Every structure is written in C-alpha cells, then in structure tokens.
Amino acid sequence: MLKFxxxxxxxxxSLVAYSSSSDPSxxxxxxxxxxxxxxxxxxxxxxxxxxxxxxxKRFVDLMLVGPASxxxxxxxxxxxxxxxxxxxxxxxxxxxxxxxxxxxxxxILKMRTMTDSHGEKRITRIGRFLRKYHLDEIPxxxxxxxxxxxxxxxxxxxxxxxxxxxxxxxxxxxxxxVRPGLTGLAQVKCHYQNTDEEAxxxxxxxxxxxxxxxxxxxxxxxxxTLWVLPQGRAL
Length: 235
What we know:
Layout: H1 2-19, H2 26-29, H3 38-50, H4 53-86, E1 93-99, E2 105-111, E3 114-117, E4 120-123, H5 125-132, H6 141-146, E5 150-152, H7 159-168, E6 181-183, H8 185-189, H9 196-212, H10 215-228
Parallel strand pairs: 5-6
Antiparallel strand pairs: 1-2, 3-4
Helix pairs in contact: 1-10, 4-5
C-alpha cells in the first residue's frame, strides 16, 4: 500500500506547489535576470550538449507517443468530424511554419479553427471550443513522433515573432538548444495576454527552462498542464 501511495503523494505535492504559484504575477516576480550575455550563452550551449537527459528525453517521447495516441486519435477523430461539419468546404488540418531545434524550420500541424468568410478570417464555432481546451494542438503528436517537437519544452514560434523577440532580448537563442514542446514552463506559469510585459515573462521562463531542464521539472510541468487544461485557461 505504501508503494502505491508514494507516487500519488509525490504528484499531488507537485500540483500543490505549482498551483500555489499560479497567480500570473508570479512570472513577473520570480525571474528577474534570466536572459544571458554572449559568454553565458556559449557556456550554457556546452552544458546542454554534455547533458544526457536530452537524449534520454527523446527515448521517453517515443515511449509516450504510443499511449498518448491511443487517447488522442479517437478524440481527434471526433473533433475532425465536427470541424468538417462546421466548415464543409475547408480542410480539417493546416500546417504552419515554425522555428524549432537548432533554429531549423518545420511545419507544425494543427486543427483548423478559423475560416475565411468573404475575405475576412474569423474563428469558427467549433474552433472557439478547440482553442479554449487546446484540442487543436492534438495533431502535434505527429510532430513529436517525427522529432520536430517534444512533450515538454518552449513553445515553437513563428518566424516573424521569433525575429521580433531576438531583436528585443539578448541571449534568446538558447531557446533553440532544446526541442520545442507541446507545453512548457511559460505556458503553465503565465496566463496568455498579448502585452509586452507578458511576452518578456514568457521569454524569460523559456530561458529558465533551458537552464534547469530535468526529468523532475518536466514531470511538474506535465502535472500542472493536466491540472489547468480542464479549466480552459489560456496557455
């Protein structure tokens, strides 16, 4: 009984610890000097390359893709049918160019949540639901299988947003030292808001993740993600 209870207690403690700091202001209070100077970037790059965990993480991703697909494929099939019924003339999925590991471009796969109506893009009825609970991200399981992404890591950015961030923040290129993730530290610690302050907080948390990447940190991020997803919180 003790062996059974200990893992549950561990996960519960992780959830409590993260939930207690889920106030969006936390991401502005706790990380003040994360972005790095050029010499620090080079040192961190060497450290990341020597770590064994990133290589182990790829193996874990491949082990988890199978069980995750058992749940994801039936859900995605139902969502795909609803997307098609909502907008019969448009495709169910779409691809978008993102910047990933080592700065390489790749095509991220998502369920379509918008439609082009008379030259004006708008969110569809089912698209609003998919975005709220992040179900439009389910097809990215295939990006993980291909090796473009991982389950936990900084979210991949569009080329335009990436260029803007690189101009604003020194040392941001460390974000490319790891594979981009389906969810990450910035997503669970900060509520999404389209403000400069929030953007800076997310950038700092991405760098903080790269500096402290570990199996324990990934487990806590996964626990927190599973905690906030049913709440429909913007990540």
